[in-house]
Amino acid sequence: MADDVFKALADPTRRRILDELTERNSQTLFEICARLTTRHGLGLSRQAVSQHLTVLESAGLVISRREGRYKFHDLNTEPLKHIVSRWLGPKAPESTS
């Protein structure tokens, strides 16, 4: 699972999508596309953004839910918490400065 998370985070567009979901959760594909275009100057097709969302969802970083004809995307930080605890868990030594 951690490999999927690292693969998903390796792409700068997917990191921007996560940034947008951090700022405002529960966005539709249309909203995410609009924010990527207006805020980051990325002219990606809806299909390209949808493929990025599929990778993020496979890694567990995004959870999607349907409400009527709309599909909303939410950030899920649990996979990141597992990675952080792997190296920075309770047994990690404190840094000395």
From TrEMBL:
Q: Which InterPro entries match?
A: ArsR-like_HTH, HTH_ArsR_DNA-bd_dom, HTH_MetalResp_TranReg, WH-like_DNA-bd_sf, WH_DNA-bd_sf
Q: Name one Pfam family in it.
A: HTH_20
Show which residues constitute the signal peptide. none
Gene3D superfamilies per UniProt? Winged helix-like DNA-binding domain superfamily/Winged helix DNA-binding domain
Listed A to Z, the keywords are: DNA-binding, Transcription, Transcription regulation
Q: Which domain of life is it from?
A: Bacteria
- Domain HTH arsR-type positions: 1-95
Q: What is this protein called?
A: Metalloregulator ArsR/SmtB family transcription factor
Question: Where does this protein come from, organism-wise?
Answer: Streptomyces anulatus (Streptomyces chrysomallus)
